[in-house]
């Protein structure tokens, strides 16, 4: 069953905890920890690569065997560094996907709450009563306008002469 269908069927975070699944926050924290660990390993490997390159230069032509060994170690470290780069990229992608999924879940949940609130607000409203009320308001506005017009017209004292 997909996560979305579980959500609509009433799956809760308490149910997922009873199954042993981590919460999104826990998973995100662990992914960030892994990213930090891999970043530190990257820095370590980069310094090792620089050391091996310096060692190879130092041995140069004096000790070809030691220089070749240093270059081989450097190449191994570069391969490890490349693998870590790929792993970091995958973890970043997974973390971003998890963050987006968590955001979408929260948005969907809040939209559900809003829909329930709207239902509750509209529960006591009857369209016929609203129509009648709006019609009454319009009639009263018309009466008020007629009264206002009648009051604002001059009283006509002396305007009409009877000959």
From TrEMBL:
Q: Which InterPro entries match?
A: Snf7_fam (IPR005024)
- Record localization: Cytoplasm, Cytosol; Late endosome membrane
Membrane topology for this entry? Peripheral membrane protein
GO biological process: any one?
A: vesicle budding from membrane
Q: What is its main location?
A: cytoplasm
Keywords of the record, alphabetical order, are: Coiled coil, Cytoplasm, Endosome, Membrane, Protein transport, Transport
Q: Name one GO cellular component term.
A: multivesicular body
> What ranges does the record give for the region Disordered, renumbered to this chain?
1-25
Q: Where do Low complexity bias regions lie?
A: 1-24
Give the UniProt family note. Belongs to the SNF7 family.
Q: Which protein, by its recorded name, is this?
A: CHM4C protein
Provide the species name: Ramphastos sulfuratus
């Amino acid at each position: 069953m997909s996560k979305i269908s579980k959500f609509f069927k009433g799956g809760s975070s308490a149910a997922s905890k009873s199954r042993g699944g981590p919460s999104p926050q826990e998973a995100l924290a662990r992914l960030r920890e892994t990213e930090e660990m891999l970043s530190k390993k990257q820095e370590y490997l980069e310094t090792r690569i620089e050391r091996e390159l310096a060692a190879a230069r130092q041995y140069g032509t004096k000790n070809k065997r030691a220089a070749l060994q240093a270059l081989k170690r450097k190449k191994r470290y570069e391969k490890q560094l490349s693998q870590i780069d790929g792993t970091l990229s995958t973890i970043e992608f997974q973390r971003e996907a998890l963050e987006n999924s968590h955001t979408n879940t929260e948005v969907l949940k809040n939209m559900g709450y809003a829909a329930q609130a709207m239902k509750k607000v509209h529960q006591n409203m009857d369209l016929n009563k609203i129509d009648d009320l709006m019609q009454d308001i319009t009639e009263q506005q018309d009466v008020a306008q007629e009264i206002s017009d009648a009051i604002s017209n001059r009283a006509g004292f002396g305007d009409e002469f009877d000959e």
